[in-house]
């Protein structure tokens, strides 16, 4: 396994652990269930990116039909768009409510934190779409070799 692939796998693992840890913390300590839910979902998205990297590395990606590749790309772009929309909505709500980043008492939902985790969801799903497309192009170029 080359260094670049190791980095991609470690990066996705960090995303999984960050989402799980943040989601648990926001739910248990701050009662910010919206941020916890989005954090956990972000962790799932990072997990799917890890699955894509490992599938490509172990060459199981090479047997994916084109319909599955297209489906994965489209779903991830839709989720990325929803993540961006969620981030903007969270920022607007946080500004309207005059929230700060500090924890004052038992504030249930800090929308600035929700915006951060919507951005993280956007990042993981966008990366999944991009890498799926990139890996599909590499597999296709490897399977079509010119005749001597």
UniProtKB/TrEMBL annotation:
Protein keywords: Endosome, Lysosome, Membrane, Transmembrane, Transmembrane helix, Transport
Xref: Pfam families: HRG
Compartments, as annotated in UniProt: Endosome membrane; Lysosome membrane
InterPro entries the record matches: HRG
Membrane topology of this protein: Multi-pass membrane protein
Predominant place of localization: membrane
Molecular function terms, GO-annotated: heme binding; heme transmembrane transporter activity
Transmembrane annotation, as ranges: 37-57, 69-96, 111-131
Cellular component, GO, one term: lysosomal membrane
Family as reported in the entry's similarity comment: Belongs to the HRG family.
Name of the protein in its database record: Heme transporter hrg-1
């Amino acid at each position: 396994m080359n260094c670049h692939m190791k980095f991609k796998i470690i990066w996705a693992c960090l995303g999984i652990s960050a989402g799980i840890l943040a989601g648990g913390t926001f739910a248990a300590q701050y009662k910010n269930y919206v941020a916890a839910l989005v954090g956990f979902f972000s962790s799932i998205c990072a997990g799917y990116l890890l699955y894509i990297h490992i599938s490509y590395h172990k060459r199981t990606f090479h047997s994916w039909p084109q319909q599955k590749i297209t489906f994965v790309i489209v779903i991830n772009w839709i989720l990325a768009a929803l993540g961006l929309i969620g981030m903007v909505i969270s920022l607007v709500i946080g500004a309207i409510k005059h929230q700060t980043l500090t924890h004052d008492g038992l504030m249930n939902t800090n929308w600035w934190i929700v915006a951060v985790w919507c951005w993280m969801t956007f990042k993981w799903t966008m990366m999944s779409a991009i890498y799926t497309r990139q890996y599909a192009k590499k597999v296709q170029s490897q399977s079509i070799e010119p005749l001597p």
